[in-house]
Amino acid sequence: MSFSSLVGSSSSSSHPLAPYGWDAAWEAEFAPHAEQGLLPGRVVRVDRGQCDVVTPAGVVRADTEFVVPRDPMRVVCTGDWAVVDPEGGDPRYVRALLPRRTAFVRSTSSKRSEGQVLAANVDHVVVAVSLAVDLDLGRVERFLALAWESGAQPVVVLTKADLVPDPATLAHLVQDVETSAPGVSVLTVSALYGDGLDTLVALVGSGTTVLLGQSGAGKSTLANALVGEDVMDVQAARDVDGKGRHTTTTRNLLALPSGGVLIDTPGLRGVGLFDAGTGVGAVFAEIEELAERCRFQDCAHESEPGCAVRSAVENGELPVRRLESYRKLMRENQWIVAKTDARLRSEIKKDWKRKGAEGRAAMRAKRGHWQ
Q1: Dist. CA 157–CA 336, nearest whole Å
Q2: How far is residue 130's CA from residue 254's CA, in Å, rounded to a whole number?
Q3: Which string of b and e fits 254-271 if b means at least 16 CB within 10 Å?
């Protein structure tokens, strides 16, 4: 049965993929593929060259051989909308991916300085931060820079709030995070007792949410609470540093009973920036605004005269830690962009040489034919 016959004349909000985020815009993007009798589906998990895709006919296992480009940024990822073979093929293949609206990207740890897409087509990025250990505000800012760069709306969730019973202490911690996260909602949640979950459920009740954080941040417990059942394994974190094992080993997409879609991810040890200049600027919006009042347009905010940023630090308006974190992330981002550009230039040169060699070989073959 074709997709068009499954949907009929009903609106996009009433067909089988609506709980997974299907809408009229995706339907329009898919229209040329529908004419070929192919099925739409959303990737719920990717594993060793294959993926699970939820389609109007149910979840199918599909091979990704035809969507493995040389560019790692275009490799199929959880959250992608895919074009899948209809029933009957063995194996079934993902034939194409619909253009992504958003993507959460970090740099890989490899020497090639490539980007890695952790989740595609997300509307909210929930950064889970455990209150069982001391807050690392620099890490929060790093996550938020990538979240803003993705095109999604970030949210910070302070988990294990029951471990901070003093309201004044909890309020102080929230204020510290809010200072480091301008324009971002900061919620406190105790998944153990259900405190704060209603607010989070309402916030992620529409669109797609990706759940990110370090191991031991309580992401799996939070995912179980949002889904309403134990879909993720949970292990206790070490008391000494709050870290746990990677209980989630793959990125999984789940439809929430209250509406919306959740992508749970493994705990992240490293969160490198990848061309996230706009995101860094959004995290440090107050510094970017101050910089506009500096005497020199290219002010480095070090020792230049007329530096509005340094003046704000000296009069206590801007915390020194914020400026140091801003400098660190800006330097890292500039380095990764320069390194990525250099790699791209090298690949372009190699491509030119390869095409030149092929052209010269073709000319020699032609000369041999003429003789």
Answers
A1: 28
A2: 23
A3: bbbeeebbbbbbbbbeeb
User: Residue 300 corresponds to which tokens in the numbers above?
Assistant: 């480095």
- Give the pLDDT confidence score for residue 296 in this predicted structure: 93
Query: Where do runs of H (alpha helix) occur along 80-215?
Result: 137-150, 167-180, 197-203
- The model's pTM is 0.82
Q: Which amino acid is at 122?
A: V
Kind of pairing, strands 124-130 and 153-159?
A: parallel
Cβ(94)–Cβ(62) below 8 Å: yes
Instruction: State residue 350's pLDDT score.
Output: 62
**DSSP at 347:** H
Question: What contacts 24+ positions apart, CB below 8 Å, involve 164-173?
Answer: 164/131, 170/131, 173/131, 173/135
Q: What is the pLDDT of residues 3-17, one digit of tens each?
A: 333 333 345 568 899
- Strand residues in 329-371 grouped as ranges (E): none
**Would you tell me how many other CB atoms lie within 10 Å of the CB of residue 229?**
9
pLDDT in tens, 119-150: 999 999 999 999 999 999 999 999 999 999 99
- Give the tokens for residue 268: 């992240």
Q: 128, 84 in Cβ contact below 8 A?
A: no
